[in-house]
Amino acid sequence: MSSVFGRLFRVSTFGESHGAGLGAVVDGCPPRLPLSVTDIQAALDRRRPGQSALTTPRQEPDQVEILSGVQDGATLGTPIGLLIRNTDQKPADYKDTDEVPRPSHADYTYQMKYGMRARSGGGRASARETAARVAAGAVASQLLRLRWGVEVVAWVDAVGDEDPALVDPATVTQDAVDTNAVRCPDIDAADRFTDLITSARDAGDSVGGVVACVVRGCPAGWGEPVFEKAEARLAGAMLSLPASKGFEIGSGFAGTRLRGSQHNDAFVARADGSLGTATNRSGGVQGGITNGEPVVIRVAFKPTSTIAMPQPTVDYEGKATVLEAKGRHDPCVLPRAVPIVEAMAALVMADLGMLQAGRDD
Amino acid sequence: MSSVFGRLFRVSTFGESHGAGLGAVVDGCPPRLPLSVTDIQAALDRRRPGQSALTTPRQEPDQVEILSGVQDGATLGTPIGLLIRNTDQKPADYKDTDEVPRPSHADYTYQMKYGMRARSGGGRASARETAARVAAGAVASQLLRLRWGVEVVAWVDAVGDEDPALVDPATVTQDAVDTNAVRCPDIDAADRFTDLITSARDAGDSVGGVVACVVRGCPAGWGEPVFEKAEARLAGAMLSLPASKGFEIGSGFAGTRLRGSQHNDAFVARADGSLGTATNRSGGVQGGITNGEPVVIRVAFKPTSTIAMPQPTVDYEGKATVLEAKGRHDPCVLPRAVPIVEAMAALVMADLGMLQAGRDD
Amino acid sequence: MSSVFGRLFRVSTFGESHGAGLGAVVDGCPPRLPLSVTDIQAALDRRRPGQSALTTPRQEPDQVEILSGVQDGATLGTPIGLLIRNTDQKPADYKDTDEVPRPSHADYTYQMKYGMRARSGGGRASARETAARVAAGAVASQLLRLRWGVEVVAWVDAVGDEDPALVDPATVTQDAVDTNAVRCPDIDAADRFTDLITSARDAGDSVGGVVACVVRGCPAGWGEPVFEKAEARLAGAMLSLPASKGFEIGSGFAGTRLRGSQHNDAFVARADGSLGTATNRSGGVQGGITNGEPVVIRVAFKPTSTIAMPQPTVDYEGKATVLEAKGRHDPCVLPRAVPIVEAMAALVMADLGMLQAGRDD
Amino acid sequence: MSSVFGRLFRVSTFGESHGAGLGAVVDGCPPRLPLSVTDIQAALDRRRPGQSALTTPRQEPDQVEILSGVQDGATLGTPIGLLIRNTDQKPADYKDTDEVPRPSHADYTYQMKYGMRARSGGGRASARETAARVAAGAVASQLLRLRWGVEVVAWVDAVGDEDPALVDPATVTQDAVDTNAVRCPDIDAADRFTDLITSARDAGDSVGGVVACVVRGCPAGWGEPVFEKAEARLAGAMLSLPASKGFEIGSGFAGTRLRGSQHNDAFVARADGSLGTATNRSGGVQGGITNGEPVVIRVAFKPTSTIAMPQPTVDYEGKATVLEAKGRHDPCVLPRAVPIVEAMAALVMADLGMLQAGRDD
Asked: From CA A167, how far away is CA A187, in angstroms rounded?
């Protein structure tokens, strides 16, 4: 296990999907930052199950309690303990997994690594673990917004084999993202994505997709070459998310098909005398350091592994069997992945901001 | 700066492209591992400039010296100091960059972060920095191979807009990769890639591409959920490389277009009684932990930023100018990126292997 | 704030003395270790206030709840979340400290560092913070005992200007330590210490002293030169405790008065063929690595800063005043420091044990 | 091995006493700090062997080379590579240690930990390792002095059973320390210490002692509760030094004999409106955070283990033998320990200063 994240703004998470609860300890957050339960709860409400017909019908209110580190509506500079009690546990749903490792889940690998596994529902491999990230990420977002004026917005950019959405990273807002259940600010694409998810759900199947995310207002100079470049930290953060299989910054894989003369971002003079770039194929970072342009990333999420359709596979003994999942699961993780991607981006950027502050005179 | 990498197998690198030299300190390598200068030099020779018509004509022998940690051909368990002296410095080539930040380079961001920049050639942002990684990675490869029988093989999988190569990750060897200068074991693709790179070079332009890499023989159980999952560590490592813009594991972005019923890897019984998977869309990891299948990743590299064609841009004062690079640069970083990707993969996997060993009874 | 401790066996603590609660997240504990609430509660009961006439009369039951990481009486290998609710909060007792920084407390330095301070009772600087360490330490002790047969025993070795106790580190047991309220296994010394503490308490004053601690059964080879030598890690751990002012290992400061010919520990052959030492002035470590002899340390604790006697001092504005504490405090921290020293020693040794296991073939 | 030190100002050291060389990589030093080889060499010259009749007659010039990170007399913000070549190697002196572990040395424990040992002279357990710390510490001292006006001065406070020196931490200077070979600014004590060391040397024996150190000019607010308190970091740093057996801050062990009413440091108003303390038994820290008073510590060093007198012991096989050392060694490590203690204190304080800067608005 390695459930500690960050160097200065450091988070330690805990909690199984089906134990007493889960949470996070945020260590290193500066003092005197306005922070309330409401700020954190708002982020959790965007992640919780049961919010729409597109997500699992499981109902978990995910109420957060602040255990420490906050007094009179502001941080103390001390560790912020955050706790979310588990409420809707139905271990019986997972009985099969005691004998049959679910395909493309972590049942088998946890068994191999730990010599045992958490009963019922995947333990730390369950997507439920991400609630703690979202809670901690809400603190990081607050710090980014109030100390540096930095904002983080993510949205569903693609679902399945549908054409991707058309979204302008320079202007997209969280309000626009939240106008629909699928969390795509391109309304036409949102409709297509919704239809696709619904049809997969009805077929007992699942779909994957891509979440895009922009960090805006970030000053030039964040990111620690050579091993903690902004894109390295972001990539590590995103690939630590359940079901994520890929990461891009700026032009990403598509950019590899261009020539240098097409790809380079020429510098231009901004009105305020600073330099900007005419294009942003770099995705807001050059040499691992932010250049003042929006930081734009994309994260690939595979189709949900748990499906209602029967799957031929083998049990732990190697005996052929057919697995039929009975739990209540998301036909597509994308809509709920949006606040999770934002949380991880915020955790990375807050840490990089503090690292740079430590260097400045 | 953050030039320290890893938790148990820990590397600290140093060195500017045009200072006295560069190198690495490998801290935490177990004792009694056979290791000689030859092992490390062989890896460096695959990375060094001037090896073929496809790379920069700069000649830098990159001779490594072992300063400490090795005695009588074996490691002592103490830090292994590695030094590579710089030899072919031509600062005059870079005079322009004192006044004009090169598009899509790190000149501007280093200026903004550090309030100054290394004269001549990008300092730590130069690709030359990766020589230290390759030297350290050779030690990690040795540990992986001799302690666990793990091998790491990378190759050029795509260049520009050419169709990707056809390579079987289960069987590809480093010898097959090294049969041609472009380092692609699919000979037909190698020819196409070579032609494309040559034509870009002749046009004063550059091309990007994709390096693929496989880690074979890795036991099930490596990778530390939730923040140091194998894919998270690999993604962070790869995005820390100069010019990298994307990362995929297993099915990656393409996998997001499939349904769960198409994507899941059914388990099968292997001859030795253990479980394998019929397909490997997971890319050798499930829930962040290796499952015993080959770990397969892909890394996107943008086209080289330095091109011979004139580029309209602005200087540090915001005044319009046209930049014409005079240095000697690679028209395509891919062939030389192969040993670098292998090195970073080896550093990650050696660290994860040791982390798991610390847990075992 | 830096509330994270350890490299492989890693603890993150949180909690103010007078907030909702405090606790710890233990990350990295191996799976399948037998562990129950009772194991942890037993350690907390030795630390809690109100156990005897020698400690503060404050009553805090310090009931621990395991939030995660344990199932069916054994660890899962996942983070172990531990929570202790605060119950007996009397903020009114601390009203004065809002205007007058208490001498030799952390009121002033927290104000200077964080620009604010936790109302009422010192926040993270309160000794109450150590409950989280004791809870986490109980997990480490369990690992040490069951995986390696290592045991940790601490005792009160000196109080005030009384002659120190006579205790044999090779044989002292926790049962012997717990036979009296002052936690000194030398009964004659225990009586003298008790009298001294009682007389200081009755005078509205306080006394300091020394806690000694032995780690027995530790195999040779633990400790990571050069910066994480066993004694370096232990010293750092002990000086992180509230009120601690000094650390010794083996012969300590007294040893500096000897000649080398008197101080050196000659090797002897043990019955089992291994080497031991005839004396143990090294305190169980040589070159930062355990040598198989008992690891013996001593920790100096200053007299409790909070005293009932009036103290002339100045307020935050620099105006002369006389401070009279009204809270309920320990006249001597030593008896309750015993389980805390054991906890920190256990956290260090468990981490070093795992670090060494990661290196072994 | 764990040869990495610090969180933001991070040092990685390498090098055996008798290999090609040793050195350090300083990662995280801010840019634009004036720094030259001369600054570092001056510190090394105070540590090197052969400086006086009180030290080993071994002659090692310990010339440092800056490999990277410095350009035109100032830091670049990139890793600073420092190399010191070994020159005076006489492996034959150590031949015996291949068969007989030297009492109170690390020969035996390295053997047990690594399954082998560096031939000749103790490898990383040799005091020679500290040259790399001194080189890195010189960079930290420069940062402390030029960025914050902080200065670090250490001196020999006691040798053997002689009465300790009388030195005022508030005013002592490095010049005063360097007026004599024993490095004690109390001239009377210096004479006594010199006589004692000389007599021990002539007897083929060795003596120990205590180095004291003060950090002056440090602003209030440095130190990271709870696990990286200033005194915790300093204690860990000092106990990582070869031959150190104890650490005190402020009143230390002597303070445990006082009552709280005698020990507390009353606050007083300073002329500039800030608060100071009338006494400094706290040693400049309260609750782990600097309070603006001088930080005063003491470090115990045991008598040198290598002595010329014959020592009865056993060989690796357990067979009785008598060891007679033939190498050239210090009869007392104290005079050369002074710059080493300063280096470690500087490394800790520079790191804490940067950590606090990262928190500030």
From this structure: 10
Give D255 or C48, the one with higher predicted confidence: D255
CA atoms of C203 and B100, how far apart (whole Å):
76
CA quadruple B42, B46, B48, B52: dihedral sign? positive
Residues 88-147 of A with CB under 8 A from D: 147
On chain D, the residues whose CB falls within 8 A of the CB of A31 are 359
Q: What pTM was computed for the model?
A: 0.97
Q: Is A208 left (phi over 0), alpha (psi -120 to 50) or beta?
A: beta
CB–CB contact B267 A313 (8 Å)? yes
- Residue in D207, D239, D267 nearest the CB of C259: D207
B1, B220, B260: residue with CB nearest A206: B260
Q: Does D246 touch chain C (CB under 8 A)?
A: yes
Taking residues C105-123, report their average pLDDT.
80
pLDDT of D117 strictly over 70: no
Nearest to C357 among B7, B77, B360 (CB): B360
Chain C residues within 8 A of D208 when measuring between CB atoms: 255-258, 260, 263
Q: What is the pLDDT of residues D120-178, one digit of tens each?
A: 446 888 889 999 999 999 999 999 999 999 999 999 999 999 999 999 999 999 999 99
Q: Which of A255-264, B318-327, C76-85 has the lowest mean pLDDT?
A: B318-327
What's the pLDDT at A273? Answer: 86
Closest CA to D23 of B343, B69, A70: B69
pLDDT (mean) for D273-278: 94
C 20-59 residues inside an 8 A Cβ radius of D:
none
C-alpha B259/C-alpha A302 separation (Å) is 8
Give dist(CA D215, CA D197) in Å, integer: 28
H-state helical runs in D5-80: 37-47
User: Which residue ranges form the domains of chain B, and what is each CATH number?
Assistant: 4-359 (3.60.150.10)
- A271: Cβ contacts below 8 Å, ≥ 6 apart: none
> Which of C11, C100, C109 has the most D C-beta neighbours within 10 Å, making it the best mutation to test the interface with D?
C109
Separation in Å, CA of C76 to nearest CA in chain A? 7
Q: Quick one: pLDDT at residue B89?
A: 59
Tell me which H or E stretch contains A347: helix A334-359
Pick A147's closest partner by Cβ from D7, D357, D361: D361
> Which among C3, C161, C266 is the nearest to D257, CB-wise?
C161
Percent of chain A surpassing pLDDT 90: 83
Other C-beta atoms lying within 10 Å of the C-beta of residue D34:
12
Q: Which residue in A4, A258, A259 has the most chain B C-beta atoms within 10 A of its own C-beta, making it the best mutation to test that interface?
A: A259
Q: Of the candidates D337, B288, B58, D72, which has an alpha carbon nearest to the alpha carbon of residue A243?
A: B288
Instruction: Identify all chain C residues contacting D17, using CB atoms and an 8 Å cutoff.
Output: none
Q: Alpha-carbon Rg of chain D, whole angstroms?
A: 21
Rounded distance between C-alpha atoms, residue C221 and residue B110, angstroms: 44
Q: Examine the pLDDT at D93 and tell me if it is beyond 70.
A: no
Burial of residue B87 (CB within 10 Å: 0-12, 13-18, 19+) is: exposed
**Counting beta carbons within 10 angstroms of the beta carbon of residue A38, is it exposed (0 to 12), middle (13 to 18) or buried (19 or more)?**
exposed
Closest approach of A125 to chain C, Cα-based (Å) = 10
Measured CA to CA in angstroms, residue A143 lies from A146, A354, B14 at distances of 5, 10, 32
Cα–Cα distances in Å, from D192 out to B344, D50, D188? 58, 21, 7
pLDDT per residue as tens digits for the range A170-200: 999 999 999 999 999 999 999 999 999 999 9
Among the listed residues D80, D44, D335, D311, the one whose alpha carbon sits nearest the alpha carbon of residue D204 = D311
Burial category of D95 from C-beta neighbours within 10 Å (exposed 0-12, middle 13-18, buried 19 and up): exposed
Euclidean distance between CA atoms B247 and C69, whole angstroms:
32
